[in-house]
Structures are given as structure tokens and as C-alpha cells.
Amino acid sequence: MHHIELYVSDLEASRRFWGWFLKELGYKEYQKWSSGISWKKDRFYLVIVQAKEPFLEPEYHRCRVGLNHLAFHAESKLQVDQMTEKLTAKGYRVLYRDRHPFAGGDGHYAVFCEDPDRIKVELVAPSC
What we know:
This protein is an alpha/beta fold. The chain has helices spanning 11-24, 77-89; strands at residues 3-8, 28-33, 36-41, 44-50, 69-73, 94-95, 110-114, 120-124.
């Protein structure tokens, strides 16, 4: 994949989430302008852009047609555990707590959370 561009309802809130989350995964800030920012790792980059007022409704919902979630590689199960703790400490919503860290199924060690627009984000440990 080359890049993903997400339109967001609150650029600053999304910048705080994605900037922190992606930095933890080794991404570096790549581009920045008044209505957007991107982070890059290797050859892939993720872009967030402030949606214009006429397009803020209806709010995003992952069960509608379109994107359901974004999944990222973790370096280890330990990184998944550490990120789970950090997400909680920062007040971000961790999903499927009752099944964590195997909410994706047996042998699928991951944490699921939501960004400020409720886009589901998954961080997956390597399989053994």
C-alpha cells in the first residue's frame, strides 16, 4: 500500500491521537499544512485532512459501506500490551475489553481502539 488519506471532523483531536499512535509505531511526521498532516514509515504514509463543514454529517460509522478499520503491525505482544496501557491512560476507548487481547480470535493477539472519529484501529502482534 502506498498511502491512506482520512478526512476527519476535528483535525487537532485527530492529530493528537494519530501523531502519538503512529510515533509509537515508528512513523515520522512527513507533511504538514493548514488543513492536514501526514506520517510516514518506510514507503507507506497516512494522511489526515480536516473535512469541510458541508461534509461533517452524517458522522462516520464503521458499519456503513466503506472502511471498517485500519490494522497495523506491532513488533511484539509486549508492544500490544504497552499500547493497551497507554491508550487507557490517555483516555482512548479500547474495544472488546471482555475478549482482549484475543478479540480477533484465538491466536490473534491484538488491541482494538477508536480514534476521535470512532474509526476502529487495530494493532496486531506477530503470529508465533
